[in-house]
């Protein structure tokens, strides 16, 4: 006999969808307990599959087979009902704090297990801000994506000698190939930098172009290299 899920906020994955993405979030609340209460409150109508506290405690809130309510409007690599096609992980963090070592270690163990369990590629581990540019900013500029990438749990660009021309159309095209949904240049550029060029500001430049081009060429979904549907 299995225990009842901690959160009542879930449904069936639609259209036979299975998890093909992992979306990382921060809770943006003062405490993990407050976040847990909200993620389990039927009136809030939000949830995630997993919640990881600052001390590394991992709690399952919704079974991975089910559709949790963490992503909302947005898209990635052609997925438009991201909740049906993803697993959501909430990291307890008020939004402006560093992510403590025990929390990152717990996330790495959990991510490794999820990717193996569902056959998910590292390029399909994304930020909430990636799939909802302009609307969401989590897990934010303090999250260490390079650390995950070093362990094969996410991807980072390594552009080498790539030097494409700096054009808005070029950037937007490569961003779409990598997986980003359609959005204006300034919105996409901000979302891209939040993850791949943290704390950088200013107009589109050669570094942005080299980074997004490398991501698109090596990890883009257009080639069908990782998307199963
Ligand atoms: Zn989020």
From TrEMBL:
GO cellular component, one term: outer membrane
Record keyword Ion transport present: no
UniProt keyword terms in alphabetical order: Cell wall biogenesis/degradation, Hydrolase
EC number assigned by the record: 3.5.1.28
Coiled-coil ranges per UniProt: none
GO biological process entries: cell wall organization; peptidoglycan catabolic process; peptidoglycan turnover
Domain N-acetylmuramoyl-L-alanine amidase: 7-140
Record protein name field: N-acetylmuramoyl-L-alanine amidase
């Amino acid at each position: 006999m299995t225990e009842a899920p901690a959160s009542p906020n879930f449904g069936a994955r639609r259209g036979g969808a299975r998890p093909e993405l992992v979306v990382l979030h921060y809770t943006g609340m003062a405490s993990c307990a407050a976040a847990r209460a909200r993620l389990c409150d039927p009136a809030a109508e939000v949830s995630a599959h997993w919640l990881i506290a600052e001390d590394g405690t991992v709690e399952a809130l919704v079974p991975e087979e089910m559709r949790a309510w963490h992503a909302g409007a947005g898209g990635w690599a052609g997925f438009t009902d991201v909740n049906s096609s993803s697993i959501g992980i909430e990291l307890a963090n008020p939004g402006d704090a560093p992510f403590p070592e025990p929390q990152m270690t717990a996330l790495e163990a959990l991510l490794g297990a999820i990717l193996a369990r569902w056959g998910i590629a590292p390029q399909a581990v994304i930020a909430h801000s990636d799939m909802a540019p302009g609307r969401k900013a989590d897990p934010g500029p303090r999250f260490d994506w390079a650390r995950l990438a070093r362990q094969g749990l996410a991807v980072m660009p390594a552009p080498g000698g790539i030097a494409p021309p700096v054009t808005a159309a070029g950037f937007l095209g490569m961003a779409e190939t990598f997986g980003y949904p359609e959005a204006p240049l300034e919105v996409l550029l901000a979302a891209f930098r939040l993850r791949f060029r943290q704390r950088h500001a200013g107009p589109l430049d050669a570094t942005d172009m080299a980074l997004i081009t490398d991501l698109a060429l090596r990890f883009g979904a257009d080639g069908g290299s990782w998307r199963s549907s």
